[in-house]
C-alpha cells in the first residue's frame, strides 16, 4: 500500500524560515482531512487540489448519520467512489457522480451493491484509502480534473468494477432539495481498456435545470469481459448502456480473470467525453502512478497554501488548527477555467456555496495570502455577470441560485478593491454591482420563499428603492434591509475609488438605510434596555407580527431573519458602528449588550458562533477601546466551540468560511470586509509569518504568550509603538513588516489612540 512505501513528511521539502531556536515543522503532519466531517461540518475528506474541479471521494449511506453532504459517512456502507463533491456546505448534498465500485461475486442489478469497511478510512493530503470486510483495498488520488484509482483484490477472486452511470448524492432528509437523474449513457472501449459517457442531473439545493457531466476512463490492463445493465435487465458482452428514465439505473460491469490489482484513471469534463480524456492526459500522462500523483498534489498544496503561513512549534493543537483550516479554506469555489459549457471564459470558477457565507472573512483571507486567486475570483464573477446577467450568491453546475440575503458579491468585490487586488477591470465590476443595486431580477419561483426571486440579485429591490427598507411583504425583511445597506456601502467604496462622486454619495446615503428600521422603543423580554431593529410597514409604522428580537423562529427562508436573530443582525453594520453606539445609548450600554450575546458574560448563548451573521460580533468591543474584552471573547469561542477531530467545527464549514474565521482568530486580527481595516485581538502562537506573494512577509510575535498571558499589554507595528486596536491593510501587507505583542495576564486597556473608524458613517435624521 502507498502509505507503507512513502513517508508523508518526506514528500515535500520544507523551506520555512523561523526565528533562531525555532524548529521547523511540516504542515503535512498537521492536516486532518477528517476535521469537521461530523457534527454538521459536512467537510469533504477525499482527495483534491486547491480549488480543484475533481474532488475524488467515497459516497456512503448511514441513516444514523443523516444526509451525506460531501458524500462521506463515517459508518454505514460505501456505495461508490465518485469524482465530484462539494465541501462544508449546507442546503442539501450536491454532485457525487461518475462512480466506480469494486465488487466480488455475482452482480445483481436489483440490489444496491455496497462495501462495508473493516477499519477507519485513511486520508492524507492528496491520498485516500479504505479497507473492506470483503478484503478489497481501495486507494485513490485526484489531480485537477481527473483521478487515479487503485483496487487490490483478495487472491483467488475475480475482480469486478461496477461503473454506475446514474449514481449521485441524494437528500433523504430534505427530499424537496434532492438531485434527480435525468438521462445518461456509457460505452466501453472496443478493447475493454476503458469507457466514456455522460450523466445528466437536475434539482438539488439550487433547484438547477438539467446539466450534464461527461467522463472517460482508462484501465492499466484491459478487462476480460463486460456486461451492461439497464434497470433490472443485464446484457452479457454488451458494450453500451443508457437510460432516459428519471432516477433510472444503468451502467457497466467490467471483469478481470487474473488481475490481483486493477487501476484506472478517470477524467471529467463539462464540455465533452473527448475533453474528459484530454484532461486525463494533461493531468496524469500515460502512466498509472498513484504515488507520483500524491506527491504532485502535496507539492501544489505546499507551494500555494501551506507555505503562506509559518508557525512556531510549541503548540501542536494550534498548528493543527492552522494548517487543517488552511486546507479546508481552499476547496471551494472550483476552478473550471476552460470547462464552461456556455461561453469561452478566460477565467471561470463555479461552486460558489455561498458568497453570503464567504464574503466576511474567507475572501478577505484570499486577498492576503492568495491574491492571485482573489483576482481570479472577482474576474470570474464579472464573467458570470456579463453572460448570465447577474453575479451569483450561490452557484453550482454553471447556474446561479440561491440568494439568502443581499447581493453580497458586491462586498466581496469591494474588499478586493480596497486591498489593491490586481488584474481586474473595475469599471466592469462596478457595472455588475450597479445592476444588483438598481435592477430587480426576473421572478424565479422558490417554494420556500415565493415572494420574490431568490436565484440572483436583490429580490426585494422594489421595496428597497421605494421605501429605503424591505417590508414584510418579502421574506427575510430584516436580513435583506441590513444586507442591502452593507451592499450599497460596498458600491460607495468602489464608486469613490473610481472618482464617481455622484454614485459615491448616492450609495453611501443608501447604506445608512438600516437606520430606518431601528426602533428606539422596541423591547425584549428580560432586558432592561430598549432599541432593536424591527420590521417596518409601507406606511412607516413598525410591524410587531411574530417579532421578538431574541427569537427568529426557524431563522430560515420564510422568517424575518436568516440564520440569525434580529438582535444579532443589529450588530451587522460594521461600516457605521459609530451610529450604532449612539442608537444603543453610549459605550457602556454597548458593552453590556455585547456581553449579553455570549454565555461567557451572560446567562445564555444568543450569538450563534456557527453562523456568519455573528462572525464579527466578538470583535466589536474594539470600537469602544476595550480590546481586552474582544481578546477574551474570541479566545473563549475558540476554546469552547472548536476542537480537533471529526467533530471539531461548531457547524457547517460553509465552504471554508468557518475555517477562515478560526485562522484570523489564531493570527490575532480580523477583517472588516469591504474596508481596508483589521481589528486587533491577540495571537494564539508565539510566532507566525505570513509570506506574501510580493516576496515580503508579515511577522507576528507574541512575547510572553501563555495560557494565562492571553491579554495584550502593548503593540509595536513595523518597529513603532502602536496605540490603536486596529490597523489598515497597507501598513501590514504592502511591504510586509512586523507586529510584536507584549502579553500579560491582566485585562488592561492598552489602546490610548482613536477607536476603529466607521468609514461609512452617515449622520441621518430618523
TrEMBL record:
Gene Ontology BP annotations: carbohydrate metabolic process; glycoprotein catabolic process
One Pfam family recorded for the sequence: Glyco_hydro_92
Keywords on record: Hydrolase, Signal
The Glycosyl hydrolase family 92 N-terminal domain, residue ranges: 30-269
UniProt keyword Zinc-finger present: no
Signal peptide annotation: 1-17
GO cellular component: cytosol; nucleus
InterPro entries in UniProt: 6-hairpin_glycosidase_sf (IPR008928), GH-type_carb-bd (IPR014718), GH92_a_mannosidase_put (IPR005887), GH92_N (IPR041371), Glyco_hydro_92 (IPR012939), PNGase (IPR050883)
A molecular-function term among this protein's GO annotations: peptide-N4-(N-acetyl-beta-glucosaminyl)asparagine amidase activity
Residue stretches making up the Glycosyl hydrolase family domain: 275-744
Name listed for the protein in its UniProt record: Glycoside hydrolase family 92 protein
Amino acid at each position: 500500500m502507498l502509505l507503507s512505501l512513502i513517508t508523508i513528511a518526506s514528500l515535500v521539502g520544507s523551506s520555512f524560515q523561523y526565528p533562531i531556536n525555532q524548529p521547523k515543522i511540516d504542515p503535512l503532519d498537521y492536516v486532518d482531512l477528517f476535521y469537521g466531517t461530523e457534527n454538521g461540518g459536512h467537510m469533504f475528506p477525499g482527495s483534491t487540489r486547491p480549488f480543484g474541479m475533481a474532488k475524488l471521494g467515497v459516497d456512503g449511506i448511514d441513516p444514523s448519520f443523516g444526509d451525506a453532504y460531501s458524500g462521506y459517512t463515517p459508518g454505514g456502507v460505501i456505495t461508490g467512489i465518485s469524482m465530484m463533491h462539494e465541501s462544508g456546505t449546507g442546503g442539501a448534498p450536491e454532485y457525487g457522480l461518475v462512480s466506480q465500485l469494486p465488487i466480488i461475486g455475482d452482480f445483481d442489478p436489483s440490489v444496491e451493491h455496497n462495501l462495508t469497511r473493516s477499519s477507519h478510512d485513511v486520508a492524507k493530503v492528496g491520498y485516500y484509502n479504505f479497507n473492506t470486510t470483503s478484503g478489497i483495498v481501495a486507494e485513490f488520488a485526484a489531480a485537477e480534473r481527473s483521478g487515479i484509482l487503485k483496487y487490490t483484490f483478495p487472491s483467488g477472486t475475480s475482480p469486478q468494477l461496477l461503473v454506475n452511470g446514474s449514481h449521485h448524492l441524494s437528500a433523504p432528509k430534505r427530499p424537496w432539495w434532492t438531485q434527480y437523474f435525468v438521462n445518461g449513457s456509457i460505452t466501453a472501449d472496443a478493447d475493454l481498456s476503458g469507457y466514456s459517457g455522460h450523466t445528466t442531473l437536475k434539482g438539488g439545493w439550487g433547484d438547477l435545470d438539467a446539466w450534464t457531466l461527461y467522463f472517460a476512463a482508462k484501465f492499466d490492463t484491459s478487462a476480460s469481459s463486460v456486461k451492461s445493465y439497464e434497470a433490472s435487465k443485464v446484457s452479457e458482452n454488451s458494450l453500451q448502456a443508457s437510460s432516459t428514465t428519471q432516477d433510472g439505473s444503468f451502467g457497466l460491469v467490467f471483469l478481470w480473470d487474473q488481475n490481483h490489482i486493477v487501476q484506472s484513471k478517470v477524467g471529467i469534463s463539462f464540455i465533452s467525453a473527448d475533453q474528459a480524456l484530454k484532461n486525463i492526459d494533461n493531468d496524469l500522462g500515460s502512466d498509472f502512478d498513484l504515488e507520483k500523483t500524491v506527491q504532485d498534489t502535496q507539492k501544489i498544496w505546499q507551494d500555494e497554501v501551506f507555505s503562506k503561513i509559518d508557525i512556531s512549534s510549541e503548540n501542536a493543537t494550534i498548528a493543527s488548527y492552522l494548517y487543517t483550516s488552511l486546507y479546508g479554506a481552499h476547496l471551494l469555489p472550483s476552478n473550471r477555467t476552460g470547462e464552461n459549457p456556455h461561453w469561452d471564459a478566460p477565467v471561470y470558477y463555479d461552486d460558489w456555496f455561498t458568497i453570503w457565507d464567504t464574503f466576511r472573512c474567507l475572501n478577505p483571507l484570499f486577498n492576503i495570502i492568495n491574491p492571485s486567486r482573489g483576482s481570479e475570483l472577482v474576474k470570474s464573477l464579472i464573467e458570470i455577470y456579463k453572460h448570465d446577467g447577474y453575479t451569483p450568491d450561490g452557484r453550482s453546475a454553471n447556474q446561479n441560485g440561491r440568494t439568502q440575503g443581499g447581493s453580497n458579491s458586491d462586498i466581496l468585490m469591494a474588499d478586493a478593491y480596497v486591498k489593491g487586488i490586481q488584474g481586474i477591470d473595475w469599471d466592469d465590476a462596478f457595472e455588475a454591482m450597479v445592476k444588483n443595486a438598481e435592477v430587480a431580477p426576473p421572478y424565479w419561483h422558490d417554494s420556500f420563499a415565493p415572494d420574490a426571486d431568490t436565484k440572483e440579485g436583490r429580490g426585494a429591490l422594489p421595496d428597497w428603492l421605494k421605501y429605503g427598507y424591505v417590508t414584510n411583504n418579502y421574506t427575510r425583511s430584516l436580513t435583506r434591509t441590513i444586507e442591502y445597506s452593507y451592499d450599497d456601502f460596498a458600491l460607495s467604496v468602489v464608486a469613490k475609488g473610481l472618482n464617481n462622486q455622484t454614485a459615491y454619495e448616492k450609495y453611501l446615503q443608501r447604506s445608512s438605510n438600516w437606520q430606518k428600521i431601528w426602533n428606539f422603543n422596541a423591547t425584549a423580554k428580560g432586558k432592561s434596555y430598549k432599541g432593536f431593529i424591527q420590521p417596518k410597514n409601507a406606511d412607516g409604522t413598525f410591524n410587531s407580527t411574530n417579532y421578538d428580537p431574541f427569537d427568529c423562529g426557524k431563522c430560515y427562508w420564510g422568517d424575518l431573519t436568516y440564520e440569525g436573530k434580529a438582535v444579532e443582525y443589529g450588530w451587522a453594520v460594521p461600516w457605521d458602528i459609530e451610529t450604532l453606539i449612539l442608537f444603543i445609548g453610549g459605550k457602556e450600554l454597548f458593552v453590556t449588550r455585547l456581553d449579553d450575546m455570549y454565555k461567557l458574560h451572560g446567562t445564555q448563548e444568543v450569538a450563534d458562533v456557527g453562523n456568519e451573521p455573528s462572525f464579527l460580533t466578538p470583535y466589536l468591543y474594539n470600537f469602544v477601546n476595550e480590546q481586552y474584552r474582544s481578546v477574551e471573547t474570541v479566545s473563549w469561542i475558540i476554546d469552547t466551540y472548536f476542537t480537533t477531530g471529526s467533530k471539531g467545527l461548531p457547524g457547517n464549514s460553509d465552504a471554508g468560511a468557518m475555517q477562515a474565521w478560526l485562522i484570523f482568530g489564531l493570527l490575532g486580527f480580523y477583517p472588516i470586509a469591504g474596508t481596508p481595516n483589521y481589528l486587533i485581538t491577540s495571537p494564539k502562537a508565539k510566532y507566525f509569518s505570513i509570506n506574501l506573494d510580493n516576496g515580503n512577509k508579515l511577522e507576528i510575535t507574541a512575547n510572553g504568550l501563555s495560557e494565562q498571558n492571553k491579554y495584550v499589554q502593548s503593540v509595536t507595528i513595523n518597529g513603532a509603538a502602536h496605540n490603536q486596536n486596529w490597523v489598515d491593510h497597507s501598513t501590514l501587507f504592502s511591504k510586509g513588516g512586523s507586529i510584536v505583542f507584549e502579553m500579560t495576564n491582566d485585562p488592561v486597556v492598552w489602546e490610548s489612540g482613536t477607536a476603529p473608524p466607521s468609514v461609512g458613517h452617515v449622520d441621518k435624521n430618523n
